[in-house]
Amino acid sequence: MNCRLCNSAGCNELFSDKIRSYFHCEKCGLIFVPECGHVSIEEEIKRYALHENSPDHEGYVGFLSDLVSIVIKQSPVNGRILDYGSGQRAVLTGLLQGRGYNCTAYDPLYKIGNDALAKTYDTVVLCEVIEHLRDLPEELSIIKKAAGRTGTIIIRTRIHPLPEHFAGWWYKNDITHINFFSGVTIDTLAAMLGREKSQNDELSGDIFVFRGRE
């Protein structure tokens, strides 16, 4: 089986549970669920409806607070920000707009921001989105185009443990999560996005900043 990210051949099955199988790419480090293990779009939306991702949920707003701070630090004051995969409530968009930033929500699952991709942005943010994407190369191409040549791309996702510990990792249990990243995978993302990965010590372990090249 070929890797869903780098297309490397010969990915091996790492682990299988009662629901689906997981394959590991030794080249880029991605662990992924093959297409036969993906839920339908309808099931995916039903799963998201169970999340408490609303502006009234203090825990979720608190979870976004460090990301908001990083986005603000990385974005020009008058720059354009795209919240890619914003979710139905577009909470991150609202928090940034509340700080006076020009942020646009985009989520095709909910038909939000249908014309958003006609523009380019100074900053493109994916908050716990990339682990859900069904066609990684295609989506990365869209994201790269949205950020133009110099835009910053900020991605939040969990880094998977060593493959031998993957079976006990809680993050894989969400059936809408189909892509799991290692440090090597993050470097591969930087190359595919044509950007430099920031080494800023202020970043948390699940937030990654990819800077555009001047």
For the structure shown, list the relevant keywords:
globular; six-stranded mixed sheet; 214 residues; Rossmann fold; 19% strand; 26% helix; alpha/beta; 10 strands
Could you characterize what this model shows?
The protein has one domain: Rossmann fold, CATH 3.40.50.150. It contains 5 helices and 10 strands; from the N terminus they run E-E-E-H-H-E-H-E-E-H-E-E-H-E-E. A 6-stranded mixed beta sheet has the order 5-4-6-7-10-9, with helices on both faces. It has a 4-stranded antiparallel beta sheet with strand order 1-2-3-8, with no helix packed on it. Strand 6, helix 4 and strand 7 form a beta-alpha-beta unit. Helix 2 crosses helix 3. The model has no long low-confidence stretch (mean pLDDT 93).
What order do the strands of the largest sheet run in, or round the barrel if closed?
Answer: 5-4-6-7-10-9
Helix content: 25-40%
CATH superfamily, please? Vaccinia Virus protein VP39
Rg is 17 Å
Parts with pLDDT < 50 across at least 5 consecutive residues: none
CATH third-tier fold name: Rossmann fold
How many domain modules?
Answer: 1
Count of separate DSSP helical elements: 5
Gap from first CA to last CA: 37 Å
Give the overall shape, derived from the CA principal axes: globular
Total E-strand runs: 10
Which strand-content bin applies to the residues?
Answer: 15-25%
The ordered string of helix (H) and strand (E) elements is: EEEHHEHEEHEEHEE
Q: In the CATH hierarchy, what is the class?
A: Alpha Beta
Question: Structural class from helices and strands?
Answer: alpha/beta
CATH architecture: 3-Layer(aba) Sandwich
Q: Strand count, sense and closure of the main sheet? A: 6 strands, mixed
Residue-averaged pLDDT, rounded? Answer: 93
